[in-house]
Amino acid sequence: MKRILLPTDFSENAYNAIKYAVQLLQDEVCEFYLLHTYTPVIMSAGSMLDSYSALTYQKVAQENAKKNLDKIEAEIGKKFPNKNHNYTAILSFNTLIAEMKSVVEEHTIDYVIMGTQGATGAKEVFLGTHTMYAIKKLKCPVLAVPANFDYEPPKEILFATDYKLDKNNKYLFMLRDLCDAHHSRLHILNSYYGTPLTESQLENKAFLDAYFIDNAHLFHIAEGTDVLGAVEQFQIKAKINFMVMIHNNHNFLENILFRPVINQVVYHTNVPFLVIPSVKTQ
Question: I need a surface site. Which of 66, 76, 120, 269 has the fewest CB within 10 A?
Answer without folding.
Answer: 120
